[in-house]
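Quarterly update from the structural biology core.
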Amino acid sequence: MNLFAAISTEPALWSPEWLPRLPQRLVEMLLGFLGAPEWLVSIAGFLVAAGTVVGVFLGGFALLSLIERKTLARIQNRIGPNRAGWFGILQPVADGIKMLTKEDIVPAKAEKFLHLLAPILIVVPAILALGVIPYGREWTPVSLELGLLFFFAVGSLTELSVFIAGWASGSKFPMLGAMRAISQMVSYELPLIISALGVVMVSGTLSLPLIVEQQGGFHLGFIPAWNLFTPWGFFAGILFFICSIAEANRCPFDLPEGESEIVAGHMTEYSGFKYALFFMGEYLGLFAISALGITLFLGGWQAPLPGLGFLPSWIWFFGKLAIVIFMFLWIRGTYPRVRIDQLMRFAWLCMIPMALLTLPAAGIWTILNRDGHGFLAWAITVPLLLIPCVIVTVIFNRRLASANRTYRFAE
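Predicted structure, tokenized:
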């Protein structure tokens, strides 16, 4: 029995649905054909699967860096990168070569080892988080029963790496920027996690593949059974998206990079490839948090309309991911940066109270729908969420928002 006969025993392996797992399966079958022990086959398959995910999103990072600059240029009526390659397609390659060849400057008072460790630690959590996302019906790199808990656990390591970067630089500006970045991330992690708890309540599981499977099917024959198309899911999804902007340090919540106030924040004393690693970690974190939002609220790899299930499921996932990422880019090119007091006030006085309301709404929705009272579920949960939202918005805008400033110029 040769290798080609072993491959032919699984015809589904060559189908488009199995395409992302093809490298992993080929390595496993090759090692099995060579008589390798089972533990070696498992480890090699896991490493190849991890390498596939890392390769896909590193390529996505390079491509997104160009798309973002092109999109912002289009919004601002500029041209954008157009010199390196046709239509600027080689601009990410030029940026990578520039970062690799720039001098690595380390301050004399910096902690050398921690100064090197910080940019590495900011990339690792994003890669680990990407490993538990179900990208397709047959493509979940690491399927964990506590996948959602693992995602948030490794995501919390980002605060540690930011603090290490600020403290190890041996300068006041990076330390101040690190403290401000940590306060922002901690403040918005609370409503982010709370808004995701409603999905756990309704699904009854922390397994991300099971959460996606429970969003399968259609209501009335054409409305996807996604959590976003429920009252509690809509509010929780909007809150999750806003918190994702802050967690990913994207405009208008990109205060850790407030160059007019604290230079470049915790990245001030970094240069060269270390500096590029921070941006790589930021983009990979953007991919990870967007992928989690798609998994929790947009049905993951589920098709948006009936009759479209013949397409590979991972195509639908990455299509949704592209739309969500484009929304991040659009918001960055539209809204100005807020002040730090506005940022913190919005988190503690608006986001957290509204996120807490999604929990009883999800519980009421689940109980009433289980008993067959669908109309009553809508009648109770919509006012329960909408009325407090209006009240909090009015109070925040009229009483808690900062008054208009009066500028006095020297005569």
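Strands lie at 218-219, 223-224.
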